[in-house]
Design brief:
- The chain is α/β, with parallel strands linked by helices and 780 residues long.
- Helix content is 60%, strand content 9%.
- Among the domains are: 103 residues, no CATH class; 236 residues, no CATH class.
- The longest helix is centred in the middle third of the chain and has 61 residues.
- The protein is globular and about 110 Å long.
- Pfam families: Dynamin_N.
- One of its GO terms (molecular function) is ribosome binding.
- This is Dynamin-type G domain-containing protein.
Length: 780
């Protein structure tokens, strides 16, 4: 890496960060600063006021965090995933040992930093900002002492961990500031997450707001096994374990996730291979999409070990995620299908053997049992674990099957070696965002201060009217959008019925003639000159050998999947067209709603409201092309009994040695036949198609409703928040008119000075960004 160049660019970035922080302090001293915005369920509107007192404080914290990371050359890689996606297992696999606990309930209510610390073999946790938790436990103590235990048990699942925590609260035993070792750390993190659940049930607010700053969250220091043999780099790698947006039933966590991601240097998304199109995964992808243009984004598609031969392969998964699920946010080469559990178990076993020469007692360490099940098979014995060369080979094969080698070498090794460059890139992105927002704010403030009273008052009144108009027209716009959505749903429903009919007809033709219809074979070259899979009109396929029967079944399955793939292609293009038309129509409606406001603003002010957020992409909810379940028991074995009389000394001797001298002089012989009932198979496939279409219909309806409703709410919250921010800015200009002429002149000069400064910051940041992009390309 160009170490000297990175160092010089980092020095320039530090200078710009310090200048921006100093400028924020100056802006905060402006007369009539905006009061703090009260927290509401709609945080989008509040966030539009970036220069209220709490908005300035938030930006101050972000820039200070970037300055700290840049000074320490720290790259923070945020790990994001929904509950049960395997986020904790993935982090353990990345580290090479178990640092985070796994439970079948949310386990990341508070973000946690895991910092690679060479030489720190035993993990240690620091939790200095514990005062808000202690205050919470005081409130919980008062409530628990006077609460009905039976009523509490009806509302809360009380296991051993929760029972221990409740007793600690009653006994007034707080949290420590330091924990050393895996078990004490597990205990601390589990207790923190159980506190969230307990607080929710007892209707006591958990102090999430006290842990939005990275400096206040728990920190685990441990050596990453994968990086232990590398040379000390120019920089530091830190993982950020973030709460999923659906964890612990706390709506505040989604906002906390956005806050934490905005301060990360890069993001790694952990997706569940078995739940790629779930609503919870969709919520997480939306959050990541909001920061995807500011930081690099990677994706690990976990649980890929559950793939069967009919499931999507690596190439198809990358295309699905990059092209549909996270379009425009991530590139295919940043997507890695993996098995985090296999990787974690394999690497931990290899590391244990390297350190101690053997594996621990499986009765005392459950992970050893899990490793043996995965690597040696479920019939493993203790003797198998004693064969160290065999265990090492099995661990290596399991590690290779986990597919984690490539993402670790691509992401972690590169991030570790380029931590300083990633930290620099992150700082410049935050500087760019700040300078843009500050430039808009200061330009509007300067214009407002230079207007006469009448013009200024007219603009303020116009904004009040615009905000009132937005509220009044919201129901009308929602009605128009509902009509458009219902029309799109009708089109999708008609297309599903047509598609189902075409597939039924194609299957009927195939089972009558034994060949895939010509309209499909033209799309599938491998079937173009295919011999018939069976004789036309045949309804039972009978074979005397199992191998021939399975070969016939494979041909039929391949042909049926070709029909399904053909149907998918038609459905994908049609649904995509319907979704794109709906998106364009809704965008037109939003722009028509916004156009009169934009015209009035641009007529008197050299600024305007930003365009609304684009509609989220509607996923292509396709038919399940896998028909494996229909063929699971399609092959049946039949036996017919043949009795043949045998005489002579040889047969008598055989019966005598077999202990059958008291039986009749005969021998029972079985004739085996393997049968495929084409009628039953066709009926199963028809039912599968019908059921898949109905499931797809419900999924599309639900997703359309969620996406469009959320987009509508986001649009009005964004626009209203932006208008209110402009209005507050102009109101401050009006209040400034109450000051003396000298004070007004002084304020104008200060605003103009800040505007000039932020212009320099913006230009220098742009040049710095170009240099960093050049470095990043050179490193690829």
């Amino acid at each position: 890496m160009h170490t000297q160049t990175v160092f010089e660019l980092s020095q320039e970035a530090e200078r710009l960060l310090q200048l921006a922080i100093s400028q924020l302090d100056s802006i905060q001293q402006f007369p009539a600063s905006s009061p703090p915005v009260a927290a509401t369920d709609s945080t989008v509107a509040a966030n539009a006021n970036h220069f209220s007192l709490n908005g300035i404080q938030r930006q101050h914290e972000i820039l200070q965090s970037e300055l700290r990371k840049l000074t320490h050359q720290e790259m923070v890689l945020a790990i994001v995933g929904t509950m049960k996606a395997g986020k904790s297992t993935t982090i353990n696999a990345i580290i090479g040992t178990e640092v985070l606990p796994n439970r079948n309930r949310p386990m990341t209510a508070l973000p946690t930093l895991i910092r690679h610390t060479p030489g720190q073999r035993e993990p240690r946790l620091y939790f200095p900002h514990v005062l808000p938790i202690e205050a919470l436990m005081e409130n919980l103590h008062t409530c628990l002492v006077h609460s009905d235990r039976q009523a509490l048990e009806e509302r809360l699942e009380i296991d051993h961990d929760m029972e221990t925590l409740i007793q600690r609260i009653i006994d007034k035993q707080g949290f420590e500031r330091h924990y050393l070792g895996a078990q004490p750390i597990f205990y601390c993190l589990k207790s923190l997450n159980d506190l969230v659940r307990l607080s929710q049930v007892l209707n006591i607010d958990f102090p999430f707001a006290a842990y939005t700053a990275i400096e206040h969250i728990p920190v685990i220091e441990v050596e990453f096994v994968h990086l232990s043999e590398q040379e000390t780099p120019y920089g530091q790698l830190t993982l950020l374990d973030t709460p999923g947006p659906n964890e612990a039933g706390q709506p505040y966590l989604q906002q906390m996730l956005k806050e934490q991601l905005s301060r990360a240097s890069a993001v790694m998304v952990v997706l569940d291979y078995t739940q790629l199109k779930s609503i919870s995964d969709d919520e997480m992808r939306r959050v990541v999409a909001q920061v995807g243009d500011k930081v690099p984004v990677y994706a690990l598609v976990n649980k890929f070990d559950q793939k069967d031969r009919n499931s999507d392969d690596e190439k198809q998964i990358r295309a699905l995620i990059a092209g549909s699920l996270m379009r425009g946010v991530i590139s295919p080469e940043h997507i890695f299908p993996v098995s985090s559990m296999w990787g974690y178990l394999a690497y931990r076993a290899k590391h244990e053997i390297e350190q101690h020469g053997c594996l621990p007692n499986p009765d005392q360490h459950r992970w050893v049992q899990d490793f043996a099940d995965a690597a040696l098979g479920r019939r493993w014995q203790l003797a198998d674990l004693a064969n160290i060369p065999h265990v090492e080979q099995a661990a290596q094969l399991l590690w290779e099957d986990s597919l984690l080698e490539r993402p670790i070498s691509t992401i972690l090794d590169a991030a570790h070696g380029k931590a300083s460059l990633f930290a620099l890139h992150s700082a410049v992105q935050k500087l760019n965002s700040y300078s843009r927002l500050a430039s808009e704010f200061l330009f509007l403030r300067a214009q407002g201060l230079n207007m006469d009273n009448d013009s200024l008052q007219a603009h303020i009144q116009s904004l009040e009217l615009d905000i009132s108009t937005l509220y009044s027209c919201q129901a009308q716009v929602a009605q128009r959008i509902q009509m458009e959505m219902e029309e799109a749903i009708g089109q999708i429903s008609n297309h599903l019925d047509l598609c189902k009919q075409r597939v039924h007809e194609a299957l009927k033709s195939y089972f009558e003639r034994g060949v895939v219809p010509a309209m499909i074979t033209k799309k599938v070259p491998s079937l173009l000159y295919h011999e018939p899979d069976f004789t036309p009109g045949e309804r039972l396929l009978v074979s005397g050998t199992e191998n021939l029967a399975r070969l016939s079944l494979f041909k039929i399955s391949h042909s049926c999947e070709a029909i399904m793939t053909w149907a998918q292609g038609h459905m994908a293009s049609t649904l995509s067209a319907i979704a794109e038309t709906l998106k364009q129509t809704l965008t037109v409606i939003f722009r028509q709603t916004l156009e009169p406001i934009e015209q009035r603003l641009s007529a008197g002010l050299d600024t305007c409201v930003k365009e609304p957020l684009s509609l989220p992409d509607i996923q292509n909810m396709l038919l399940d092309a896998s028909v494996a379940s229909c063929f699971a028991d399609a092959l049946t074995e039949q036996r017919t009994v043949n009795t043949q009389m045998q005489t002579g000394i040889r047969s008598a001797m055989q019966r005598w040695f077999n202990g059958a001298t008291d039986q009749l002089e005969g021998n029972t012989d079985y004739s085996r036949q393997f049968v495929i009932n084409l009628n039953e198979l066709q009926t199963k496939l028809i039912q599968h198609i019908t059921q898949a279409c109905e499931q797809m219909r419900g999924a599309v309806y639900a997703q359309l409703d969620v996406s469009v409703t959320q987009c509508l709410a986001t649009f009005f919250a964004e626009v209203t928040g932006a208008l209110e921010a402009i209005q507050r800015n102009l109101n401050h200009c009006m209040l400034a008119r109450q000051q003396s002429h000298e004070q007004q002149q002084g304020l104008r000069k200060r605003v103009q000075h800040c505007l000039t400064t932020v212009t320099f910051i913006r230009e220098d940041t742009r040049l710095l960004q170009e240099d960093i992009q050049t470095l990043l390309k050179a490193e690829q």
